[in-house]
Design goal:
Blueprint (H helix, E strand, L loop, with lengths): L4 H13 L20 E3 L4 E3 L2 E8 L7 E6 L3 E7 L13 E3 L2 E6 L9 E6 L3 E7 L13 E3 L2 E3 L13
Antiparallel strand pairs: 1-3, 2-3, 3-4, 4-5, 6-7, 7-8, 8-9, 10-11
Length: about 160
């Protein structure tokens, strides 16, 4: 007797959800201390073996940091946001030719968030500030498509529902 499609799908789902027989453990590699950042909300980006991310709080001004992590040095704050250049980065970073790009949920010229870049040579550079008309309060990261960055905002735009 051939199994029905729903029965086969249930079997595959059960196999996919079955826990691995080997025991798994988590290892804490480093902890944020406020100075190097606090409350990282997104994943990490690997650039040549070093991990980079953004923390939504902490740093010199309490507005968040761009940080790196390596097994040798642990977490290092590379730059701090200061509200003028953005505040509260909540997204991951996108690497384009060793320059990192991201968004901040707040701060900038209009308090509605920014698009920024980070490089060791230039630190944080604000590329654009949101003004509600062009969007406001981005949460998601940016996607690089052939050298053009794309992203979304949570609020703003024609109907106030995001862009």
């Amino acid at each position: 007797m051939r199994p029905t499609l729903p029965a086969l799908a249930a079997c595959c789902l059960a196999l996919a959800l079955a826990p691995d027989a080997r025991a798994q453990s988590l290892q804490t590699l480093a902890s944020f201390n406020g100075t190097n950042g606090a409350n990282p909300e997104a994943g990490l980006t690997d650039v040549n073996g070093t991990l980079y991310g953004a923390a939504s709080a902490g740093g010199v001004n309490g507005d968040g940091t761009v940080f790196s992590y390596s097994a040798v040095s642990g977490i290092t704050a590379l730059a701090s946001f200061n509200n003028t250049n953005g505040a509260s980065p909540e997204s991951g970073l996108t690497d384009v030719n060793n320059t990192l790009y991201g968004t901040t949920h707040g701060g900038g010229a209009n308090g509605a968030g920014t698009i920024f870049s980070y490089s060791a040579a230039n630190g944080i550079s604000t590329l654009a500030s949101f003004n509600h008309t062009n969007g406001a309060n981005p949460i998601a990261g940016l996607t690089d498509v052939s050298g053009t960055l794309y992203g979304t905002t949570f609020f703003g735009g024609t109907n106030g529902q995001g862009t």
